[in-house]
């Protein structure tokens, strides 16, 4: 993994001071070394529809697992304020991110998906950036917690677990999902990142689309494989793979090269005329040590996109 030396050494010193199981050690290491970046109103479709899937007659209890610096927790607060009463607890294993979440001051890059009107509505401009207004902090809580190792207290109407399963290996994903299943109310809703789908999720939850968004609820009954496949195809039609494209970068960042390659190939089938999928395929192959195959794809890409600067740079590096 390509990580700056000082960052890596600081991370190793920190990690040695913890007493963690091998599974957790892997997750913590990845969170230190990989990009845990987030931003407000990420996956806009989700925020447009979420108020339709929460109970309106009582207080909504929400949980955000892997909340990073609080961006999705406050986005939830912005979206729900004035509509329903709610509380939301954000959990993240990274202490520094939770400290920043509590502080609630962000630079403009985190607000890149917001309109000027939204920014004025939800933030006060302060010296070092934008501070979430006090009225949107009510009912919002944060806690440092490694959700894989520590119990989740309470049960929730909404659980946001977006781009957190990506950090885990197969058994970690199953363990995390079991915990979320138990922490979810019977009629509760699970929210994953746009385009995120894992077979372990399909075993425990069923998708239900609302508008352009997809939510998940506890699986109610046995669904025959064939029907399940059709449901997945309806929920994530083949063309939707393109939506996953930026997850490929996260996968490469945290070393899931095979998964990244599989997705890049699929994305290429859907939008082969876009250079992005080709670049990810080349990167994944390179990280896997398959340099001959990478160069072969690179040659084709070079012909297809003769003016693409990234592809030219890749050519310089690889050949
Ligand atoms: C890529 S960020 C996702 C942030 C946000 N959910 C989003 O989708 O924009 C993933 C976050 O999950 C956290 N994380 C990873 N594994 C975790 C675990 N086992 N328990 C708690 N947090 C975890 C990381 O520290 C990181 O801040």
What are the defining features of this structure?
single chain, 319 residues, alpha/beta, Rossmann fold, five-stranded parallel β-sheet, 14 helices, globular, disordered N terminus, binds S-adenosylmethionine
Overview of the structural elements:
By secondary structure, the chain is α/β, with parallel strands linked by helices. Helix 1 packs antiparallel against helix 2 (22-33), helix 11 packs antiparallel against helix 12 and helix 12 (275-287) runs parallel beside helix 14 (309-318). Helix 7 (170-183) links the parallel strand 7 and strand 8. The chain has helices at residues 5-16, 22-33, 44-49, 71-80, 95-103, 116-122, 170-183, 199-204, 225-235, 245-253, 257-270, 275-287, 291-304, 309-318, and strands spanning 60-65, 86-92, 105-106, 123-126, 129-132, 140-144, 156-160, 184-191, 205-210, 213-218. The chain folds into three domains: 1-34, no CATH class; 44-235, Rossmann fold, CATH 3.40.50.150; 242-318, Tetratricopeptide repeat domain (Serine Threonine Protein Phosphatase 5, Tetratricopeptide repeat), CATH 1.25.40. The longest helix is centred in the middle third of the chain and has 14 residues, at 170-183. The radius of gyration is 21 Å and the shape is globular. The model is unreliable at 1-7 (pLDDT under 50). The protein contains 14 helices and ten strands. The strands form three sheets. Strands 6-2-1-7-8 form a five-stranded parallel beta sheet.
């Amino acid at each position: 993994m390509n990580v700056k030396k000082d960052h890596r050494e600081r991370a190793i010193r920190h990690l040695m001071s913890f007493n963690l199981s091998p599974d957790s050690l892997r997750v913590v290491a990845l969170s230190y070394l990989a990009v845990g970046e987030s931003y407000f109103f990420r996956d806009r479709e989700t925020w447009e529809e979420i108020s339709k899937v929460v109970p309106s007659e009582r207080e909504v209890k929400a949980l955000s697992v892997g909340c990073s610096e609080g961006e999705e927790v406050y986005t939830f607060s912005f979206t729900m304020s004035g509509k329903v009463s709610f509380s939301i607890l954000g959990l993240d294993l990274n202490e520094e991110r939770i400290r920043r979440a509590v502080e609630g001051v962000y630079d403009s890059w985190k607000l890149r998906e917001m309109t000027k009107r939204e920014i004025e509505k939800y933030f006060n401009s302060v010296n070092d950036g934008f501070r979430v207004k006090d009225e949107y902090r009510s009912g919002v809580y944060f806690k440092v917690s490694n959700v894989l190792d520590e119990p989740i207290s309470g049960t929730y109407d909404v659980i946001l677990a977006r781009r957190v399963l990506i950090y885990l290996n197969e058994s970690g994903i199953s363990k995390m999902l079991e915990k979320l299943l138990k922490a979810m109310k019977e009629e509760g809703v699970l929210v994953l990142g746009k385009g995120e789908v894992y077979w372990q999720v399909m075993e425990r939850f069923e998708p239900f689309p609302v508008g352009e968004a997809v939510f998940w609820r506890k699986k109610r009954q046995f669904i025959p494989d064939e029907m399940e496949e059709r449901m997945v195809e309806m929920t994530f039609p083949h063309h939707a793979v393109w939506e996953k494209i930026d997850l490929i970068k996260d996968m490469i960042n945290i070393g899931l090269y095979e998964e990244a390659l599989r997705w890049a190939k699929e994305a290429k089938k859907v939008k082969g005329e876009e250079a992005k999928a080709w670049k990810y395929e080349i990167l994944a192959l390179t990280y896997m040590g398959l340099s001959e195959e990478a160069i072969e794809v690179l040659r084709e890409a070079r012909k297809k996109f003769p003016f693409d600067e990234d592809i030219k740079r890749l050519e310089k590096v690889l050949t």
